Here is the input.
Amino acid sequence: MIEAFSVTLNPARIIFGRGAVDRLASEVARIGARRALVLSTPFQKADAERLASSLGKAAAGVFAEAVMHTPICVTERALALFEAAGADCVVSFGGGSTIGLGKAIAWRNDTPQIVVATTYAGSEVTPILGETTDGLKTTRRDHRILPEAVIYDPDLTVSLPVGMSVSSGLNAMAHAVEALYAQDRNPVSSWQAIEGIGALKKALPRIVAKAEDIDARSLALYGSWLCGTVLGTVGMALHHKLCHTLGGSFDLPHAETHAILLPHSAAYNAPAAEEALRPAADLFGGSLSGGLHDFASSLGAPLALRDLGLAESDLDRAADLAVENPYWNPRPIEHDGIRALLQDAWEGTRPS
Ligand code: NAD
Here is the structure.
């Protein structure tokens, strides 16, 4: 029998496939906009400028100062340019950092957003925005934050370096693993989660073997869309809370932190969510935590928090912060268990 559920689905317009980026101009016109401000990080500036040129008169300019964690001071500069250039929509070209900037603008002025997604982080299909000011991160959820349209063109992901592709793909899988045991899961979110994990599990080894394997790039992007979709639909728990703490308080890089912690958070929650996690465990030879560790290791992913520069002496404070505010998790959050989890993740030991 299907268990009772209730769900609010996010509206999503998805344009997927090779060459999909060529449809950007028609998507701008479709939402009734005439002057798009194109956003990117400094690293992707040249590509963002090419994209803006492809829009011709429909381009209001390029703002290429997006950075990780969406600092409000950067948003304010982007908003000033948006107004000065007479823009009426944003095109976010990039990963979660650029998409975060587009969301921060839209949260303030309700401008429509079109995202051209180039990593696997999944932010493009969530109504969630995390912003920082004076080192403090706040997260909010609002319908204005959800982008109006998303373009997924696998050709644009070939340039994502292999190491970042792996970490970003594991970041996407983490959304799906937590979606499987979410309190508010439903049959569709669980199906999307498993389909997403399965796609990434097939795609990532092929990308490691050959970065320009376009079939694998396409499969990974498909998986990341599904994983991002469940992130935007159901609640996250221990894993995302820990990553939020480590990213926010210790300035650890987002995707790599997710990649390292995933096997350990899965190990912590496995005893309390065995049934819900079984389809994912089956994909990894029966043990999700050990299987994820071996998978990450085979891809050359970072395995230990110490390799990201976290000091062992920080682990006590990290554990204290992680248990500070209560939240739902399939297994109760116990300080000693979380401290042990962090020690294992710091050392990079294989969870059983
Ligand atoms: P990112 O956006 O910071 O990108 C990392 C680097 O890779 C950047 O320099 C970027 O320019 C470059 N890059 C991106 N795509 C590339 C490509 N195809 N080729 C070459 N270089 C490329 O990394 P991310 O992991 O996508 O995003 C992390 C941020 O997103 C964090 O701040 C995180 O909190 C946020 N995030 C938010 C949500 C949400 O739902 N709100 C979801 C996931 C991530």
